[in-house]
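Methods: holo model generation. Sequences were used as deposited, without trimming of termini or removal of tags, and paired with ligand SMILES retrieved from the corresponding compound records. Each pair was processed once, and we did not select among multiple samples. The sequence and flavin-adenine dinucleotide SMILES for this entry were:
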Amino acid sequence: MTLTDPAPATRTADRVTDRTSARAFVDTHVVPYADVYDRAGRVPEDLLQRVAEAGLWAPFLPPGSGGAGMDLVTLGEVHEEVGRGCSSLRSLLTVHTMVSWTVQRWGTPAQRERWTTLLGSGQVLGAFCLSEPGAGSDTSGITTTAAESGGGWVLNGVKTWTTGGQRADLFLVFARTAASIGAFLVPREAPGVRVRPIHDMLGTRASMLAEISFDDVVLGPDALLGPSGFTAGMVLTGTLDLGRYSVAAGSLGILQACLEASSGYAARRRVGGSALRELPLIQAKLSDMVTDARAARLLVAEAGRLKDAGESATLMATWVAKYFASTAAVRHAAEAVQIHGANGCSPDYPVARLYRDAKVMEIIEGSNEIQRITIAGQAEREKTT
Ligand SMILES: Cc1cc2nc3c(=O)[nH]c(=O)nc-3n(C[C@H](O)[C@H](O)[C@H](O)COP(=O)(O)OP(=O)(O)OC[C@H]3O[C@@H](n4cnc5c(N)ncnc54)[C@H](O)[C@@H]3O)c2cc1C
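and the model returned the structure below.
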């Protein structure tokens, strides 16, 4: 199988509006090719184009801005389905979602006018640049600077592990200003922006990671999102929360994929005259996958419902959902490999990729150590208020 997705274009039928249409899209255009993309280290252009035709890049944007006004519960279901098929593609959707949502939520009318339709249609792809070589979990340690100059800004610094950085057209960059930390929209073609691809990661290998350096990049005053000094708390918290929600849903997708692969394999594979699925120890593994998938789905849906209702309790619900779903995905991906035996270690079955991708979920959008600290802190506050 080649890197080109040979499935015939079915443009109208491919429009994704809910879980059912997302499932059909993923089963047709993603599942058969995800291992090919993983080995190639990139998602091909024709799939990115198909995602655009399906309206998948930012369906939560209002109609008229390239979106479909999709609610966030449905968006979670769609990202679960994409994550079931390919975590690399889901990662690209996640960071694009973060950029599009941030522009829509905090952009000035002029910024929205300039970017939302392009982002909604997928003509412009976004990437999220927070992490640096010296600052990951501790975002207060970032050293990229944005200095005011001539009414605009001059950006200097290095961002790393930028998902989609090899391909993105627009970077949402967090940089230190005199006042606090600001969020800046930086077009890829701005002079002084350099992109260095990062290859051969453990998981999400097709998500086209890059290190992005900014060397005296001159930006206009309209590059800053939100009033100066305002962004540090609001934009970062809100944007990371939405990214985390997408990762929770994507982790659930991995878990569901492990379940589907394992139950299929356990039905076919025979040992000692019976199918694997008839063995009590294998049944125990499958029943734990079913149980955790159902629990994770409820947690993700609850986080989405609270987002749609505009309730701040969604932050805690999203931490819990991401923590639960990502740890369950790692546990069950390991069991899925176990159920497949040597086949599970080979490139012929998807579970090895699912296992590698699952591990990444415990690190991104707030590592699970940070999630646990945050969940415990919030639980304590809820007890005392
Ligand atoms: C595949 C992939 C894609 C990514 N995509 C992006 C992206 O698009 N944009 C972006 O900005 N970043 C991205 N990242 C970076 C990611 O957000 C960071 O890796 C993550 O925030 C953790 O930071 P770190 O790797 O620097 O680990 P560190 O912060 O150095 O932490 C190392 C370890 O120490 C633990 N730790 C840290 N602080 C504490 C504490 N207080 N108590 C206990 N334990 C602690 C951590 O949990 C971790 O296990 C990506 C990473 C990966 C692997």
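Confidence is low (pLDDT under 50) at residues 8-13.
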